[in-house]
Amino acid sequence: MKNQALTLLDTVERLGHLLRAGLRQAGTTNGLQPMHLQALLYLNEANRYSNTPQALAEYLGLTKGTVSQSLLLLARRRLIARHADEKDGRLVRLALTDKGKEVLKELGVGNAWRDALQQASPARLSSATKVLKEALAILQTKSGQKTFGVCVTCRHNLHIGPRSYVCGLTKEKLSSREVSKICREHSPIEENVA
Ligand code: SF4
After folding, report:
1. 173 — phi, psi (to 5°)?
2. Per-residue DSSP letters for 34-57?
3. pTM (whole model) above 0.85
4. How confident is the model over 114-161, as pLDDT tens digits?
5. β partners of residue 46
6. 2-61 per-position pLDDT tens digit
7. Helix or strand run (H / E) with residue 104
8. Where in the chain are the domains?
9. Which architecture, in CATH terms, is 4-113?
10. 74: number of Cβ within 10 Å
11. How confident is the model at residue 111 (pLDDT cuts 50, 70, 90)?
12. Ligand 1 pocket list (CB less than 6 A)
């Protein structure tokens, strides 16, 4: 019998191929490649410490040069806006424009995935998510990559009151909406990875 871990790897790979093909197909009508859509999806989820070209390149595992080309196209198409950081003018910040948000909504990226999992119970989804996240965190740590998790699983997160949070790293307040976004500075709580 095939090793269960390898069966899971095989499944993850096949899902990856299918999802990328879905992205390719979804972007065709708008002339967008999977990487353009991945950049839009990332910026839709990234918090204020993570909305830079460098963070996007790290998240996608690509070079900054490769990512820059895609960002130029997205800016030309007015799907993203670029502006200088308020404190450090050398730093470029990126944000989805209303048009960019609209394109993501129209393409319905993720709908097929949600439909496919409709029959799975919350308990099964939760254990599948846990196993895959643990494997991802271990592989990311081994290869020196950032985890890009959310505040609730970060050791810097300070929950100081009802719906009131502070980032222990930056000492800045975080809104309840921000704590569910992904972060480049995320550092997993040891027993509760990514
Ligand atoms: S608590 Fe962690 S994940 Fe949240 S903003 Fe701070 S460093 Fe990022």
Report:
1. -70, 150
2. HHHHHHHHHHHHB-TTS-SHHHHH
3. yes
4. 999 999 999 999 999 999 988 998 898 899 899 999 998 899 999 888
5. 182
6. 699 999 999 999 999 998 898 888 888 889 999 999 999 999 999 999 999 999 999 999
7. helix 98-107
8. 4-113, 122-180
9. Orthogonal Bundle (1.10)
10. 25
11. confident
12. 47, 49, 151, 154, 156-157, 167, 169, 174, 183, 185-186
The Cα–Cα gap between 158 and 167 comes to: 6
pLDDT at 194: 45
How far is the C-alpha of 60 from the C-alpha of 58, rounded, in Å? 6
- For the four alpha carbons of 17, 60, 53 and 174, in that order, the dihedral sign comes to positive
**Nearest atom within ligand 1 for CA of residue 149:** 3
Question: Which numbered atom of ligand 1 lies nearest the CA of 174?
Answer: 5
What the block records as the tokens of 53 is: 């070209």
